[in-house]
Design brief:
Blueprint (H helix, E strand, L loop, with lengths): L1 H12 L2 E5 L4 H5 L15 E6 L7 H10 L2 E5 L4 E5 L5
Antiparallel strand pairs: 1-2, 2-4, 3-4
Length: 88
Amino acid sequence: MTFVMGVMDLQARFPFSVTSWWRTAKHNAGLADSVKDSQHLVGTAADVVFDPGAEPDPGLFKAAARELGLEVERESDHTHLELFTTMY
């Protein structure tokens, strides 16, 4: 629930659409640059795209996500969100 509620909270503050969420192992394996232990396999990762012209400051978005227990990784054509697995 932490992941789902975190994504919902972020989406209410920053306009984005989810383009990929829960995946089967077969689908995940067929994607370029996918990792075997992807959190997409257990539903605690999602890829999002921001509405045109609405991409937030990366530092602001990352800080907001971190407050909700989520990590952010900017990838070539989307932003990847996943549940924090290690706390510093």
